[in-house]
């Protein structure tokens, strides 16, 4: 770190990157006062801010105090905020902030930028990968249905359910970005934030409180950078071994149906690693579709004999997975118990607070109360792990209402974005305490800073069963890449998508294309969708079953390759799905490729995400790439390959040490 | 005016209204710095502002200097802006502003409010009449197609043409509001402004420059208030006598068709005051529909013998009206002449600037150049008035691009909102210089401060040929009422609406309901719409002709009543269409009635604006009201009357001095 303070200009550099350029004429730090309004409807937020003051902090003084450089910014002759600069033990730049006037609740910090710079990250971003040219509100919410105001589905979702969303809506926002200049920058805050990458000369980071600190570090390569990042936020454990044995089939409807479907799949040659039955604790019917009975215990009526069958299945090599989320259904046993013990968030006056989840209401387990966490961990351990579940979807986490009251006394506006982390931690600890970290798989869609060390894997949320770019198959790819750069190296998605509304029904072709992509991700898992009857399913016809069978065999064939990548992720934070620039940093084109990825070091995957497309245009960075199906070698640039159903555009690197394994894919 | 400056709080009152409450703790004046971005597509603007500074001016000093009280507001120890308070000769409160630092280009001023206060005006507002609870961006633009983000038509218009608009979009914004506390408040600026009425304790007036002054006055009654307002902004002249002789038929297609249609209408009993042929100077076909050839001279091919027929028609009692706007079609004679003389707006480097009007391009006549104004007045006098036109639509005025260069050196951002005024003034002066103010009718949709004294009548712009509340028949009523309160007392609309797009086609019922409303406005004028073939027209069938005939007879019957109202408007600014509270100020319900109006003093009109509605629910302020068709008397409150086609819900006041005339309506 170097601080230069000449001619009234303050310039901070770190590892040769200019981070902060500030002067009285061009201030880079602003404080202000705002009044936010948060309007939530079923996880969709309409947020407005009335900024009454935004003050440039032109004047400053610099002071050396022990191991920190203290810069005091003044406003109107009064000290307004202190920035305490230091290098951490790991040589990261840390700028801590201390508010000197409690009235300020808005903060803007400009990180120096260059016009051609590209940035990535901000959690899991589904529409943009390179974020330059846009601003990104960072607030955990439903991701939106359609996610594009020009799409008819988005308009329908907006007008019917306030649910259309936009390019920035995400279950997992994180106030951290990665620059193509090989540095990362993190703002430690869980308040509403907005990172604005529209300006040529700076990135403006806004948040609705005074952040604790800004953390920044640079490296000489992208692999070193993700290792550094995950050194900060934590790393996911390795995937349980059984996950790469085949597909996890999303099934609903009870014990008999589940066993039948598993048998039929196996008979058709499908490699089955598990059955994921989200309705294991019973169902509710709503106009949205089939919903679950959120009381987190085995439902004997719908799943008779599951207590014994679950163990038989496991012996046969098929794991059984369930479902849970951090809410408890009003007037059901867990709700009543939690309410009685005072483990639920309340209204400000201490009275009952339930959240609308769409024709039913739930209590919010108050994870700021350590006793409530212990209790919920107990629920997970007793009702789920001890029962025999080997995994679950750890759904939701984005719905903390901003007007509820929490045990730790912190405003729910500040806790909202932290909730996914708290929810992940409860699950992680329950598993850890059960000694099952290496064997249980749980997956979340919600996320935030610190989720990395607690959530074992992400899934991409609720895509439309549709081809649309912003909310269909394609959107899962930037989601995997952006969250991967944040340290979430294990990512996957519902094969075939989830949201079956507004006329969208899953076609056979979409299911097959999605399955082809999933075979080249660390987890294969299907989902029936919210209206199963409207969707093409894995067992709708023999051709689909045969296609899936082949894709699961390819996936299983890649087991050692995927396990090695998962290990690398757990040890060094190297994501399993990687942007092309991770290993080809001199390739300028690679920085704009958002619908292709490297799967491990040596496979390049370009999923077909357009309906009816049978020839795929692919960008290959300079290297020797062998087209998996034709065996033809390419050396880089934009090329075209045939990509009929069953032959997704996948290439392996000729120089791979796994070339034998990878060259066998075509023969499967 | 009273200025109290006690205990560091500054309170300004005028005629017992508290206008301004300011203290260091609760400042009511803010200055700032912003960078606006204006993106125009065919008159639809996408405007964003990046406010980098918003500074509360907490400290102030008060000084008496001659006839003004000077309040200097300081920021950071430096004087930032002066407010010079005085009473004008007419005893209005005037607060002039003088910037003391040129860097400030954003201004926020809080007018003290009470929680239950209601406000009106802001130019011509089509969705809301009482503006409280919303903010109103004030920028002249296309008004939008659909104007409601929840409507499918709006979505289609947005995605296809960026043209959907929203509740605040208007051709005629004006930074002036009227309070139910019987005061008006005007901010003298033509910059982009936004009046925010969402706060309980103040109205926040924002503009994107330092305004010249704020002007405010209060009266004891609403009639006195509109007289005061029009004392500031000017008053419209009286309607030409011939206008109330019948309907002005919107006809296109040439001399023969026009004469035929006039004859047929007259034969069916329609009282015809004029024929309005917007294509008198020729047409262009575009995908939008039939468009006009913007070269502003008689087109002999389309209108053969018009030079003689126009006089014959006049002798037969039918005036001929044309069309003009402030743009000249690229490469046509007027364009070439203007370009050669340097009368067109240019790019910043002085090179050619043409504006996209939808598949054709035009030059913008530079009305900041007095010579250009004289030239355009000459065009109007020679090509239109001397040719024999007795009126025209003075279309457009909202498209001044913000990045063009103008003769007077003022930024086009500042000139944009002034352009409708400049355009009106050119037309008004041309007519005045021709000595025809009392005989020529011209009507505009665009407007702004000062239009009142120059534009002889407004029409409500381009409604959808549809029943939708925000952009159909209903929307014309708040438009008339709000612009009327600003001093534009003569307002009317296209009978049947105009915009025929996105599947909207005008039905017979809509045409008839609109004609019924028009009979109770100061001008009856029909329009074929942009796609005449898709619309029901006045002569589509005999029943429609007969219905229109009756409505024109009623209108003509009301001639003396309407003329008296028009005279009152020209003399005292009393609008012909008035909100109920104008004469019933103690009736609290009256302040929320936006789809009914008083037509003159003694008629109450509640147009049917819903499809299929045959019974109309009407609110009557306390008085004796006689239902025109049944003769039944009502004394006030919410009532219901039959309102089949041909019997719009209209009531006259029993105490009217015109009771004889009004009681005869039913017999027509």
Structure description:
Chains A, B: Its EC number is 3.2.1.20. Chains A, B: One of its GO terms (molecular function) is alpha-1,4-glucosidase activity. 2 copies of one chain form a homodimer. Chain A has 13 helices and 39 strands. Chain A is α+β, with helices and mostly antiparallel strands and 668 residues long. Chain A has an 8-stranded antiparallel sheet. A 7-stranded parallel sheet of chain A has the order 18-19-22-26-27-28-29, with helices on one face. The model of chain A has no long low-confidence stretch (mean pLDDT 97). At the A-B interface, strand 5 and helix 1 of A face strand 5 and helix 1 of B.
Let me know the number of strands of chain A.
Answer: 39
By CATH, the superfamily of the largest domain in chain A comes out as: Glycosidases
Low-confidence stretches of chain A: none
The chain pair with the largest interface is: A-B, 17 and 17 residues
| CA(first)-CA(last) distance of chain A | 54 Å
Shape of chain A: globular
Q: Could you tell me the radius of gyration of chain A in angstroms?
A: 25 Å
Largest sheet of chain A: 8 strands, antiparallel
CATH architecture of the largest domain in chain A: Alpha-Beta Barrel
How many separate domains of chain A? 3
- Overall pLDDT score of chain A: 97
CATH topology assignment of the largest domain in chain A? TIM Barrel
Bin the helical content of chain A. 10-25%
Family (chains A, B): Belongs to the glycosyl hydrolase 31 family.
GO molecular function (chains A, B): alpha-1,4-glucosidase activity
InterPro entries (chains A, B): Gal_mutarotase_sf_dom, GH, Glyco_hydro_31_C, Glyco_hydro_31_TIM, Glyco_hydro_b, Sulfoquinovosidase_GH31, YihQ_TIM-like
Organism (chains A, B): Vibrio algarum
């Amino acid at each position: 770190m170097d601080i230069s303070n000449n001619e009234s200009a303050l310039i901070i550099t770190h590892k040769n990157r200019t981070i902060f350029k500030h002067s009285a004429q061009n201030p880079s730090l602003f404080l202000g006062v705002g009044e936010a309004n948060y309007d939530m409807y079923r996880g969709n937020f309409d947020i407005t801010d009335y900024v009454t003051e935004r003050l440039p902090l032109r004047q400053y003084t610099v002071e050396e105090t022990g191991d920190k450089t203290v810069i005091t910014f003044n406003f109107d002759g009064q000290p307004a905020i202190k920035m305490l600069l230091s290098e951490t033990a790991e040589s990261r730049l840390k700028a801590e902030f201390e508010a000197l006037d409690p009235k300020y609740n808005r903060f803007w910090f400009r990180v120096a930028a260059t016009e051609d710079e590209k940035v990535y990250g901000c959690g899991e971003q589904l529409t943009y990968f390179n974020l330059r040219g846009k601003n990104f509100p960072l607030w955990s919410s439903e991701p939106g249905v359609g996610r594009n105001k020009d799409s008819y589905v988005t308009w329908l979702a907006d007008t019917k359910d306030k649910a259309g969303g936009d390019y920035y809506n995400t279950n997992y926002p994180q106030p951290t970005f990665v620059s193509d200049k090989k540095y990362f920058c993190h703002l430690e805050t869980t308040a509403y934030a907005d990172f604005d990458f529209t300006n040529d000369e700076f990135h403006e980071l806004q948040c609705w409180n005074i952040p604790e600190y800004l953390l920044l570090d640079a490296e000489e390569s992208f692999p070193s950078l993700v290792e550094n990042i995950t050194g900060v936020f934590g790393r996911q454990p390795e995937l349980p071994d059984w996950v790469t044995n085949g597909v996890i089939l999303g099934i609903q409807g009870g014990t008999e149906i589940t066993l039948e479907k598993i048998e039929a799949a196996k008979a058709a040659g499908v490699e089955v690693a598990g059955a994921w039955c989200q309705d294991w604790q019973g169902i509710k019917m709503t106009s949205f579709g089939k919903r679950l009975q959120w009381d987190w215990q085995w439902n004997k009526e719908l799943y008779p004999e599951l207590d014994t069958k679950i163990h038989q299945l496991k012996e046969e090599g098929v794991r059984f997975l369930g479902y849970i989320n951090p809410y408890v259904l009003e007037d059901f046993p867990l709700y009543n118990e939690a309410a009685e013990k005072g483990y639920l968030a309340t209204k400000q006056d201490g009275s009952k607070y339930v959240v609308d989840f769409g024709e039913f209401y739930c209590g919010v387990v108050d994870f700021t109360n350590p006793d409530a966490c212990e209790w919920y961990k107990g629920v997970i351990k007793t009702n789920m792990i001890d029962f025999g579940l080997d995994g679950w979807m750890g759904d939701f986490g984005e719905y903390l209402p901003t007007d509820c009251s929490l045990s730790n006394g912190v405003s729910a506006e500040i806790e909202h974005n932290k909730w996914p982390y708290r929810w992940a931690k409860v699950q992680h600890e329950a598993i850890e305490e059960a000694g099952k970290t290496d064997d249980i798989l749980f997956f979340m869609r919600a996320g935030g800073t610190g989720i990395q060390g607690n959530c074992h894997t992400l899934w991409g949320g609720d895509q439309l069963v549709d081809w649309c770019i912003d909310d269909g198959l394609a959107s899962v790819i930037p989601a995997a890449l952006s969250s991967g750069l944040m340290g979430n190296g294990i990512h996957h998605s519902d094969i075939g998508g989830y949201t079956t509304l507004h006329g969208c029904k899953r076609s056979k072709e979409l299911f097959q294309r999605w399955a082809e992509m999933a075979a080249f991700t660390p987890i294969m898992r299907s989902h029936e969708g919210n209206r199963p009857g409207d969707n093409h399913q894995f067992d709708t016809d023999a051709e689909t079953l045969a296609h899936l069978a082949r894709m699961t065999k390819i996936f299983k064939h890649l087991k050692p390759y995927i396990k090695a990548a998962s290990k690398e992720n757990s040890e060094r934070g190297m994501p399993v799905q990687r942007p092309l620039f991770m290993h080809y940093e001199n390739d300028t084109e690679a920085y704009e490729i958002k619908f292709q990825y490297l799967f491990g070091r040596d496979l390049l995957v370009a999923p077909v995400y357009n309906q009816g497309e049978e020839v795929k245009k692919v960008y290959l960075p300079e290297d020797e790439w062998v087209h998996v199906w034709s065996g033809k070698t390419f050396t880089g640039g934009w090329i075209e390959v045939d990509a009929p159903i069953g032959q997704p555009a996948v290439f392996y690197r000729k120089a791979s040490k796994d070339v034998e394994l990878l060259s066998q894919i075509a023969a499967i």
